[in-house]
Design brief:
- The chain is mainly α.
- Among the domains are: 110 residues, no CATH class; 31 residues; 52 residues, no CATH class.
- It is 57% helix and 5% strand.
- Strand 6 and strand 7 form a beta hairpin.
- The protein is extended.
- It comes from Parasponia andersonii.
- It holds the Pfam family Myb_DNA-bind_3.
- This is Myb/SANT-like domain containing protein.
């Protein structure tokens, strides 16, 4: 009884700082419970949460509680809805499972950010498991994304059919309401997002003039475009570096993995080294009966494999 109370107190003191690994395990478990039918009317059952708590405790060795999972799911759902509302209806954007970032051409990013300044954070902010989150939460966002391109290739809000490139941003009905101040706070003081005034200053709704104010505005716009291109170029290079590191890691893992020889490989090599037909089937049966013999056989230099094989076969106590 005393140990149970002690464990409960330890569970309550558990300081939850979610990691990428924890999210991977959690989202995978949510998808599994959903596929098992433990989600009714978009709500996970108590059995589902109990199963997930047990799985995460077993796999991660931490004293997770149901409340930890519910709170984290709210956060994951919030991030997903924000991305889904922005990118779900735009074919120009793709999500990379390697970098976990949204990617598009610079001009596409610039158009969207001019229309939706709050989209800028997703140039740098990864979102993990988006493909699985799509399976979990897509039906909870209002049935379809709310930003798409119209026939004139402008970004359009489907909720009110207004052209987002021509006016102030109005939060969508089904969209997660995040202000620019919220995003600035999330990104930190060194990565401030443009304010509404700065974003709207890029839209020239006045007739051209040669006044000092007009020239200053054009200069500021040119400076912003240059800074955007430079910033995007640095992000693109960083993405390339991450992708290259992943490919190199995969190649190293592939090289370190021991090769598995098939029965066909064994028989073909017996023919290549000139094992007589009368002995070939016996040698083949002898080798494939033990994976260690196959590795030893292929690890031997080609010109010495025949002699090595005969020694293995006729001195079985040594092998």
């Amino acid at each position: 009884m005393e140990s149970k109370v002690k464990r409960n107190n330890e569970d309550k003191r558990f300081n939850v700082k979610w990691t990428e690994r924890w999210d991977d395990v959690f989202v995978e478990a949510l998808v599994h419970q959903q596929s098992m039918g433990n989600r009714v009317d978009k709500v996970f059952t108590s059995a589902a949460y109990n199963n997930i708590v047990k799985e995460m405790r077993d796999r991660l060795g931490e004293p997770f509680l149901k409340d930890h999972l519910k709170n984290r799911m709210k956060t994951l759902k919030l991030h997903f809805k924000e991305c889904y509302n922005l990118f779900g209806g735009i074919n120009d954007f793709t999500w990379s499972p390697e970098t976990k970032l949204w990617t598009a051409d610079p001009e596409v990013w610039k158009d969207l950010i001019n229309a939706r300044p709050d989209a800028r954070k997703w140039m740098f902010t990864p979102i993990g498991n988006y493909d699985k989150l799509l399976m979990l939460f897509a039906n909870e966002t209002g049935d379809s994304p709310v930003v798409v391109r119209d026939e004139a290739n402008h970004f359009v809000n489907l909720n009110n059919s207004s052209n987002l490139n021509c006016g102030d941003h109005v939060p969508f009905q089904n969209e997660v309401a995040l202000t620019l101040e919220d995003l600035n706070g999330a990104n930190g003081a060194n990565d401030m997002l443009p304010t509404s005034a700065e974003a709207n200053s890029q839209i020239d709704s006045q007739a051209p003039s040669l006044s000092a104010t007009s020239l200053k505005g054009k200069k500021r716009k040119a400076t912003k475009n240059f800074e955007f291109e430079r910033e995007f170029a640095s992000v693109r290079e960083a993405i390339k570096d991450v992708a290259a590191a992943i490919r190199e890691g995969n190649a190293i893992a592939e090289r370190s993995r021991p090769r598995v020889y098939s029965e066909q490989d064994v028989f073909k090599e017996l023919v290549n080294i000139g094992i007589d037909l009368q002995l070939r089937f016996r040698a083949y049966t002898f080798l494939i009966a033990n994976a260690g013999r196959v590795r030893a056989f292929f690890g031997c230099p080609v010109d010495e494999r025949k002699e090595f094989l005969l020694q293995m076969m006729y001195s079985p106590q040594d092998f």
